[in-house]
Structures are given as C-alpha cells and as structure tokens.
Amino acid sequence: MARRKGLVISDRQMRLVDEILNKLREVSGSRFIALVSTSGQPITTSAAEEHPDTLSLASLAAGSFAATQQLAEVLEEREFTLLFHEGRESNLHVAQVTDQVLLVITFGRETQVGKVRLYTGRAVEVLKPVFSAVDEEEEALIIDDDYSLLADEAIDDLFAGME
What we know:
alpha+beta; Beta-Lactamase; 5-stranded antiparallel β-sheet; 44% helix
C-alpha cells in the first residue's frame, strides 16, 4: 500500500515562502500567485487583489497538471514540469516545485510570458529546498538560522537588479 507523506510547513517556512511569492509577483508583473498542493488545496497566495475563487483555481490547476503528467507518461516522457494556458485577457502558468507542491501564476496580456517564465524558474529553485522531502518518519523540516540567512541572501540575489 502506497502512503502519501503529509505536507508539513512550519511558520518560519511559511514566512519565507510568502516573502518569495511576494517578490516574484512584484518582479514578474503577475496579478495572482498561489502555492497549492498537488491534491488541489491552496497553501498560500500573493495577490494585488484577492482572487474571488482561489479554491476552484487551485483544484482545477492541480487537476490540469495531473492530466499533463499523464500526457507525459503516454508520450514516454519522464515528466512535464510546467503548464501554460493563454487566454484573451489572462494567462495561467503552473510550475512544479516538488512532487507535492505547484506554483500557480496568473498574469495579463501586458506582462511578458518570458519574464514570468524566467522569474518563476528562479523562484522554483529557491522554493524547492523549503519543501524538500522530510525524512521517512515524516518529521517537520527544521530550518536553522544559517539556512534562513542564506535563503534571505539567495532571494535578494535572485531578484537583484530586477524591475
């Protein structure tokens, strides 16, 4: 029987994640960013204005990403790590952070897709260690002061010189 590990996030990790998402939204020109579980549950958001239906957006994006993973399997591809939908007024970009976490970003036509993809890729690199696997006993990941300092510096360096 396969057992799915629970996602455990400390207050300290959540503050770091929120900081990363807020900086990502600012530099990328995105309207709304959500971190969601692959089961479709919102974890946290960053938005200029609150999205009216965050729960539906999270669950539908996770479902769409799961379908994309099945497409990868059919095509004998190891995995697809990103999903993009382009609309007339809005665009949706979904990136895989870990096996359990997705980054969902919405942005308008005025925002360059390449800019969003570049900054999202960099943000995923910084977010991955925050959500790295807990050990087999499912203990919460502990972030020490050195890690927090390094993470803060990495975030600042990541977006240094950006708009």
